[in-house]
Amino acid sequence: MKIDLHVHSNRSDGAFPPAEVVRLAREAGLGAIALTDHDTAEGVDEARAAGDSLGVEVLTGAEISTRIERWSVHMLAYLFDPARPDLARTLRLVREGRVERARGMVEKLRALGVAVTFERVRELAKGEGIARPHVAQAMVEAGVIGNPNEAFTKEWIGTGGRAYVDKYSPTPLETVRLVAGAGGVTVLAHPIWLANEGLDEEGLIEELAAAGLAGVEVDHPDQDEAARRRYREIAKRLDLVPTGASDWHGNVHGGRIGECTTEPEALERLRARARGSAR
């Protein structure tokens, strides 16, 4: 069975509704996916209903935005109970922070002469969670950049950029503990992003593994074969589960759905660790 443990819907910054994501996953030959929208699991029920009719298993998931000092660290949470109060409250605070962040970025962009409005950013988000890609889309419409990726630089809304605004984020360590408290497990997403930003990602993985991190995203479109070998070796040394996923959004972000996958045995290891955290 082919399994993709990192896909997005329009409940955050993906292009398609959750049910359509499942249909496309089925067309790609996937037997299971985790819907991992940013800081929310609100699309999982819709996706699971579609999966039940199409024969695709849908796992509860979310990609949680965390932070260490100046570094943004993305944590993939799986198999948790979204209703658990501590985790639900933290995710709500992160989502609310995204709205204020978008408003602040729009204000900075306007001061730089970019004709964007918060109202248009909200429209582009289609009533779902507002994220930086929605601001980037508004910038494309305003004609200041040619494609959304150009927004994520120091010139514009990349980390530390002229129009960048920080937001509330839990730490990775807090997130590992919150997800475990909700009966789930966490996997560090695309660690190469951290390496590229100058963070000692191996040291972070070691620290989080000691606190209960379950796995590392090894096979990811942004990680070449050398990086994948390195992260696989780290995962083996620390007894972490190596996962694979496309980080598919259905737009310019991420890879092709099903491009990278997780072995069924690895998913079973995650399930076993989730059962252990629920005790």
Major sheet details: 7 strands, mixed
**Gyration radius over CA:** 18 Å
Q: Please state the second-level CATH architecture of one domain.
A: Alpha-Beta Barrel
Distance between the termini: 29 Å
Low-confidence stretches: none
The level 1 CATH classification of one domain is: Alpha Beta
Helical amount among residues, as a percent range? 40-55%
What form results from the Cα inertia axes? globular
Average pLDDT level: 95
Q: Give the strand content.
A: 15-25%
Number of helices: 10
Major β-sheet strand ordering = 1-2-3-4-5-6-7
| Sequence of secondary-structure elements | EHEHEEHHHHEHHEHEH
Tell me the number of strands.
Answer: 7
Instruction: Give the helix/strand class.
Output: alpha/beta
CATH level-4 homologous superfamily of one domain: Metal-dependent hydrolases
CATH topology of one domain: TIM Barrel
Structural features, described:
The chain is of the alpha/beta class. The chain has a domain at about 1-85 and about 170-275: TIM Barrel (Alpha-Beta Barrel). The protein contains ten helices and seven strands. It has helices at about 20-25, 45-55, 85-110, 120-125, 130-140, 170-180, 190-195, 200-210, 225-235, 265-275, and strands spanning about 1-5, 30-35, 55-70, 70-80, 185-190, 215-220, 240-245. The protein has a seven-stranded mixed β-sheet with strand order 1-2-3-4-5-6-7. It is globular, with a radius of gyration of 18 Å. The protein starts with a strand and ends with a helix. The mean pLDDT is about 95.
